[in-house]
Amino acid sequence: MREQERRERDMFIDVVRVLAVLVVVGAHWATTTVVWEPGRIVGENALSVIPETHPVTWLVQVMPLLFFVGGYANARSLARHEGVYLAYLRTRLVRLLTPTITFLAAWLVVGVLAEPLPLPEPNVVERAADLAALPLWFLGLYIVVVALAPVMRRLHEVHGWWVPALLVAGAVIVDVLVHGLGFEAAGVANYVFVWLFPHQLGFFYADGRLEHVSGAVAGVVAGAGLLALLVAVTVGGYPVSMVGVPGEDRWNTDPPSLALVALTVWLLGLALLARSGLRSWGVRKRTLVSRLNGIPLTLYLWHVTAAAIAAAVMYPLGYPRAATGSASWWATRPLWLGALVPFLLVLVWGFRRFEVHRPPEPVARSSDVWSRHVAAGLAVVSLALGILGFGVTGFDHVATRSGESVLAFTLNPLQNVLHLAAGLGVLWVVYRPASSGLGGTAASVLYLALGIVGWSDGIGVFGTNQATATLQLVVGSVGIGLLTFAISRDRRHRAPRDSVPGSPNARTDN
After folding, report:
1. Which of 264-273, 399-408, 494-503 has the lowest mean pLDDT?
2. Three-class SS of residue 40?
3. Which of 143, 191, 246, 319 allows an S-S link to 314, with CB 3.0 to 4.6 Å?
4. Contact present, 263 and 60 (Cβ < 8 Å)
5. Is the model's pLDDT at 369 over the cut of 80?
6. Which 3-state string (H, E, C) describes 160-199?
7. Is 95 or 404 the better-scoring residue by pLDDT?
8. How far is the C-alpha of 233 from the C-alpha of 239, rounded, in Å?
9. 407: left (phi over 0), alpha (psi -120 to 50) or beta
10. Residue 238 and residue 179: Cα distance in Å, rounded?
11. Coil, strand or helix: which one is 473?
12. Is 0.90 topped by the overall pTM?
């Protein structure tokens, strides 16, 4: 299986994935300045200090390319699993969650153990625990995209180019509502429209419609995206930076804006234009590309931690503390980047074993198809909230931190832990068919309990509010309703011989 998969791999996709992750790592390192002063340690973003660097983000904000690669990979995974949803979902989530949960567990241990310690100020561990979670926002969103991929793939097969067109139209409507009419709550919808757009384009590459695009067409696509970006930032009033800049009132990433759609077209056009060269380079460096493709999540998850550890070691030893944007700062950037590499390599060496790439496994047969799918959906919602939550709250003050805004929710680290535990527990039960309804019910009850607690304000350690409590009550109620419907439907469609092992009437998940 592994040899066959190796032969079937698309070197262009592998190279784009590797380069995109390395660009993310390098960009985060290059734009971060650690301000280490008596009484405080802060990470200063160079984009806040040097506005002239904002156009560089048109090349280094490569998250759209990672979603594009994800669309291709999810389409291939669905094909290998012959459309069996739960088998596909398990394979994808095992690959995503094993390194992610390891990362979360490691930092939670650090955060919990360090909290009661009388560490001197400035508290290096507290700042590191706060910053290390920065990469998690992407994974929290991507898990939802993975779960939606089978539906989006089916829409792709039936409606083709109409699907990305409608996603763009949705992004336009949301931006009008948010920035034109001041209806800010509508911005949450663009997390779906904007990030599903590049993922949907990955399906077109997977089925061959983008694989053989000529250089001329790729150039036109890139030019159209660049022109759309120029119009967006000059006429449309969108920020020039394609990443969030601390201190600015409006970001293109929170909520995602139409400018990111233009960025997707621009970057994808560039990538397709360079496809032949990227493939050739990948063939020449096959061993390197293969090794890096085995650890992209490890690199991505731990690169901020590497920077935090490096700063904790280098600054007390006298590393130059140049002001961001000064001549000394520019001169020492290569030294800073080079010094961080060994720290990341040590972390990768220690944690690469948790990036699992197992071949697909069969899923046990069951008649409870609908209830298992509903339970899996509840698990994905819980996991996404937990991971996104940590991306915003960090790992410090786990039981005492006040809530922070995560999409439409207000969460703190303790709620994040509960969401993760619920999601993992439900997933564990989902793949044991006899108890799938129980797992989904337990998750729904947890959301109902959190909602009741939030409304009563009886347990302040959850850092919640009544708006979040209302959303949790809605999630729990909808979960109970869907499970009731699903279990009823499963029972109506269950054949008498389904429970007999090896029965020709036994149903399989689909």
Report:
1. 494-503
2. strand
3. 319
4. no
5. no
6. CCHHHHHHHHHHHHHHHHHHHCCCHHHHHHHHHHHHHHHH
7. 95
8. 6
9. left
10. 10
11. helix
12. no
